[in-house]
Design a protein that fits this description.
The protein has helices at about 40-65, 70-75, 80-85, 90-100, 100-120, 130-135; strands at about 25, 30-35. The chain is mainly alpha-helical. The protein has one domain (about 5-155): Penicillin Amidohydrolase, domain 1, CATH 1.10.439. The chain has a two-stranded antiparallel sheet. The chain is globular.
């Protein structure tokens, strides 16, 4: 079960949604470097790679940003969710997206498509944190793991609001 949490770092993947082949390689520090012929494919691959490496963190931050921690961690987080919802991070994300130029919106849409492609390829074999969250919350998935909702551009946000200094995500 532990190996399924590790991103693929060698070999070839065929992922629907790319317009042309993309190369992902790791530098000496193990950081993914992405080479693509178009911005659309670059952002798609970035979303896919990011999800393969950090999906649990992304999912938790998404729940933080939208005041939905109780869905993952139970009733103990209801007060936290209420507080976060009063901050209006979700509404701020929607305003930011509405004001974004078309090229930024397209990049966010392609990134989200890459995240969704990774999620689609993990059905029934989500990493251990998703299995625990699914069992704890009573969500469907069992040992296959809790399956995140599909991602969309409005779920992606910059550093302006949200937890810590990491990017925040919202539904």
């Amino acid at each position: 079960m532990g190996a399924r949490a590790l991103p693929q770092t060698t070999g070839t993947l065929h992922v629907a949604g790319l317009g042309a082949p993309v190369t992902v390689y790791r530098d000496a520090a193990g950081v993914a470097q992405i080479v693509a012929d178009s911005p659309d494919d670059l952002f798609f691959a970035q979303g896919y790679v990011h999800a393969s490496e950090r999906m649990w963190q992304m999912e938790v931050f998404r729940h933080i940003g939208s005041g939905r921690l109780a869905e993952l961690f139970g009733k103990s987080q209801v007060d936290t969710d209420r507080f976060i919802r009063t901050l209006g991070w979700r509404q701020a994300a929607e305003r930011d997206l509405a004001a974004a130029p078309a090229d930024v919106r397209r990049a966010l849409d392609r990134y989200a498509a890459g995240v969704n492609a990774w999620i689609a390829g993990q059905q029934g074999k989500m990493p251990l944190a998703f299995v625990v969250a699914g069992l704890q919350s009573g969500a469907a998935g069992g040992l296959g793991g809790y399956t995140p909702e599909p991602w969309a551009a409005r779920r992606l946000r910059g550093l302006r609001e949200g937890p810590g200094v990491e990017p925040g995500w919202e539904p």
